[in-house]
Amino acid sequence: MNKLILAALVLGLAACGEPAGSRRAPDLVLPDLAGKTVSLESFRGKPVLVNFWATWCDTCRVEMPDLEALHKRADGRFAVLGVSMDENLSAVPPFVKEYGLTFPILLSDRKVSAAYAVRGLPAAYLIDPEGRIARRWVGAVDVHAVENDILALLK
What we know:
Strand order of the largest sheet: 1-8-7-4-5-6
Structural class: alpha/beta
CATH architecture: 3-Layer(aba) Sandwich
CATH superfamily: Glutaredoxin
CATH class: Alpha Beta
CATH topology: Glutaredoxin
Shape: globular
Number of helices: 5
Strand content: 15-25%
Largest sheet: 6 strands, mixed
Helix content: 25-40%
Distance between the termini: 40 Å
Number of strands: 8
Order of helices and strands: HEEEEHEHEHEEH
């Protein structure tokens, strides 16, 4: 099979929210904008959408209002975490304010992005209540499809 076609198929599957199997989610312990340490483990027992993004990423900008709306619909049943991949950390607080983001925004380090194999932005992982990766998306997420996946995990 042509390598270009194979690469397109792989990327297409990833962008569609491929099932990730039962792999345990890598450790995620990062500071938030206030300097408080936030751990993925602290959300155990509920689904968590972990979204890797950056202020300079146009696609990330487009999906932020949808992620905020999803967070508001969560009502404590699940969590949305934004992980900023910005090297210029001073750009993050004005971005958060501009978009009115109220879900936790964490500041990534290279270990976490490597552990999650983040190669492009945005990238998102749905973590099930037991801490396993349930789905992975590369590129913008369809928030309604994500919400359906979350609701399936809640059943």
